[in-house]
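Weekly puzzle thread! Below is a chain. First person to post its structure in C-alpha cell form gets bragging rights.
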Amino acid sequence: MTRLHGCITALVTPFTAAGALDEPALRALVEWQIASGVHGLVPVGSTGEAVTLTLEEKVRVVSITAEVAAGRVPVIAGAGSNDTTTAIAWSHAMVEAGATHLLHVSPMYNKPPQRGIIAHFRAVADAARVPIVVYNVPGRTGSNVEAATQLAIAEHANVCAVKEASGSLPQISEILRHRPARLAVLAGDDPLTQAVMAAGGDGVISVVSNALPAPMARLTEACARGDQPTAAALHLALTPFFSAAFIESNPLPIKAALAMRGRIGNVLRLPLVPIDPKHEAVLRDALEAGERA
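Winning reply:
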C-alpha cells in the first residue's frame, strides 16, 4: 500500500450555470492539479459540496476523477455518512467508480459517543475493499474524535491515514507520538501544514491547492525533505491566501478564486451562495500573492 503523503487536493465540484455537473471543467481541473504536482485528489468531500450531490452525481465525479488521474495519483473519494449502513453502501459505490481510497468523516449531527465512533469506523473498515482515511472535523460534525479514539480506530489494518482538522496541535501531536508506523497523519487545515509536517506529519488534504496547486505541492515537498527555510518562506508567502480562502465558509472563496482565473464558473448549490462581493478584492490580492510564491 502506497503511503498517502504530500499535497492532496480536496477538489471542488464545478457546476454549469444551470447547476448541473460541469464535466469538462472537472476534467480540466483534475489534469491541471496533477500537472502542477499534487500528490493526490479527494473528490466529493466537504469542499466538493458532497451533501448537495446525489449518489449518481457523486459516482460520476469520482469516475471522471479516476479516469483522468489514470493511476498517476491516489483518488480518495468521500463516502462518509452519519448512518453506518449508508456509509458502507456509498463506500462500495465509490470503489466501483474507481476510488483507490475512501475518506470517511466522523458521523455528524447525531453525535455518537467515542465508543460509537470507534464502532462506526471499525464497521466501515471491515466492509471497505480499499484503505480508508479517518476525517476528524469537529467544526462541521459537532463532535471531536479524540486522540485516543483515533488511535484505537487506527489499530484496524484497513485504516491507512487520518485527516486531522480539529485545529489542535496538541491533539495532532498526541496522535503522532503514538501512531502505528503505517498510519499517515494529514493536516486538515492549510495554515497548519508546515507545523504538522515539522512534527512528523505526512502532508495535508488541502483546500488552497485547488487554486494554488504548485506552491502547496512545493511546500509539502520542502517539509518532507527537511528544508525548513524553503518551507517557511512558502508558508509565509501563502499566509494571505490561507486567510482569504476561508474568509467565508468553504468552498465559497476557493470557488470564487478559481472563477477569477477562468477555471470554473462561480456556481454553488443552495444553501451555499457566491462569496460576498466585498471580499473579492482581498481574495484577488491574496491569490496573486500566492501565485508569486
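Puzzle host: Confirmed. Bonus trivia for everyone else. Residues 228-244 form the longest helix (17 residues).
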